[in-house]
Amino acid sequence: MSSNNTWPQSAAPPIENQICTSERLLFTSGDPEEIKSMVGRVMKPHQFTLLSPHQRLNARMHYIPMGDIALSRLKYGADVSIVPGQLQDFFLVQMPLSGSAWIESGGKNLESTPQMASLLSPEEATVMRWSSDSDQIMLRISRSLLERSLVGQLGSPLDKPLVFDLGFAWQRCIAWRTLMNYLIECATRTPDLLQYKLIASQIEQLVSVTLLSTHSHNYTEDASLRRSIIRPRHVRRVQEYLQANAHEPITVEELSHIAGVSLRSLYSGFKEFLNTSPMQYLRELRMERVRAELLSGEATSVTGVALRWGFAHMGRFSAEYKQRYGETPSQSLKKT
């Protein structure tokens, strides 16, 4: 590794070879319609155009689903235009291994190269042109996962959509590069990772926390977020416990025991560093889980989901939900 913490120009990151195993191959094709369909199946429907009639497509995509995150590697073998519009439900980190891509997203432009990734945010309309030699590793992260993590760090609901800076110097970020290699290792050594829900959840949290802490976004300078970064150990411990056990019955006395401090110290710590109480923090977590479930496409009943997450008073729950998200629970359910 070179002294400036970037990969040497003559060597690609280890993930380049690890992600291309035959069992991870999603497709190879030279047919534009098939390519558009296959990529759209794991990303989203989009416009796709071959830019030069003198070139032939030779596309190849490897794909590793991992719950709320998914890794893939994609190259088209020709100059192409890709217009996904708004991603809506996910963030996408695109890390070129070779070649380049021109990205316009949210009114900003970026030339993406092996040293500069692009990070697309869900509500930013996007247009891209990939060069014929562009070969990219992509990490798809669900919007609900990142927003839940950010709400946990802020200790309050979001008042605007989360938007990351478009350019991401991923090669210079040791934490991110290490994370990418760890993800590939987990997927390679444990192909049935999704069967282990606790492990999968921990990996998802690791991805979201790492991205939120290593790359600039429109909440980076938020005072609440800065406070949360230096929050005391007992506050962090209770936060982590609540995030992992929000589906379980929890009392404040139990949280005090887990924190190893008095109830008074626990309340004081949450108020000072998160501007909320432990039980209100839990309520907000559960509300986020309700929304994620309603938008997942698997829920059939608002009442059933609300009750499962501990909201017994439907009128109060619906009012609070609408105030927070700008729509009723039923409207969220109908989106799927």
Summarize the structure.
With 336 residues, the protein is α+β, with helices and mostly antiparallel strands.
Explain this structure to me?
With about 325 residues, the protein is α+β, with helices and mostly antiparallel strands. It has 2 domains: about 15-215, Jelly Rolls; about 230-335, Arc Repressor Mutant, subunit A. Helix content is about 45%, strand content about 20%. It has helices at about 15-20, 30-40, 145-155, 175-190, 195-215, 225-230, 235-245, 250-260, 265-275, 280-295, 300-310, 315-325, 330-335, and strands at about 25-30, 45-50, 60-65, 70-75, 80-85, 90-100, 100-105, 110, 115-120, 125-130, 135-140, 165-170. The strands form 2 sheets. Strands 1-3-4-11-6-9-12 form a 7-stranded antiparallel beta sheet. The protein is globular, with a radius of gyration of 21 Å. The model is unreliable at about 1-15 (pLDDT under 50).
